[in-house]
Structure formats: structure tokens, C-alpha cells
């Protein structure tokens, strides 16, 4: 078991192969992002759809929305105002999209 101050001696593959480690790591990341005032949503099923739906639903309220198809943590929102958390995705996309298909 590990926590935020643990110095890991394992490879990423070995650490994340254990489901308990993976869940704990995700929780640590979520807490760190939330502590930094970053809105966090964890995908239950298809992470790609969650990412795209989130980006589409929050784009009108943000000055800058960036998506990277290389990284599972791929939506970065930049908003100058402090009006609270971004809204939940509204289910706008129902199928798998390629990066070339996405326009915001």
C-alpha cells in the first residue's frame, strides 16, 4: 500500500497491474487536482466519451479548452473567472470519435 509521500520502487506497469493500487493512485490524483482547484470527473465507462462530452459542455464557459488524444487525462480548462466548478457533461456524444472529428 502507498500514500502521497511514498517513494515507489516499482515500474508503472507493475504498480497499476494491481487494481487496489490503481484505485488508490486515481484517488490520490483526484485529491491533488481538487486541492489545486481543478474540477475532476472520473470516467465510469468510455473515458474518451467523457472527455469529449466534458469539453463540449464546458467550452462556452471557458476561455481556453485544450484536448490531447495522447493522454488519458486530456482536457485542460483555462478560465479567468472564479464562478465555480464546470457543469457535468450533457451526453452530447454517443459514439467513439477520432481526434480529427473534434472541433470546439
Question: Helical element count?
Answer: 3
Distance between the termini: 41 Å
Radius of gyration: 16 Å
Helix content bin: 25-40%
Instruction: Give average pLDDT, whole number.
Output: 68
Order of helices and strands: HHHEE
What is the tally of beta strands? 2
- The stretches of 5 or more residues where confidence is low (pLDDT under 50) are 72-104
What share of residues are in beta strands? 5-15%
Largest sheet: 2 strands, antiparallel
Walk across the major sheet and give the strand order: 1-2
* Content-based structural category: mainly alpha
Shape: elongated
Protein model, in words:
The protein is mainly α. The chain has helices at residues 12-17, 19-35, 47-58; strands spanning 64-67, 75-78. The protein has a domain at 12-61. Strands 1-2 form a two-stranded antiparallel sheet. The longest helix has 17 residues, at 19-35. The protein starts with 11 loop residues before the first helix and ends in a 26-residue tail after the last strand. Mean pLDDT is 68; it is low at 72-104.
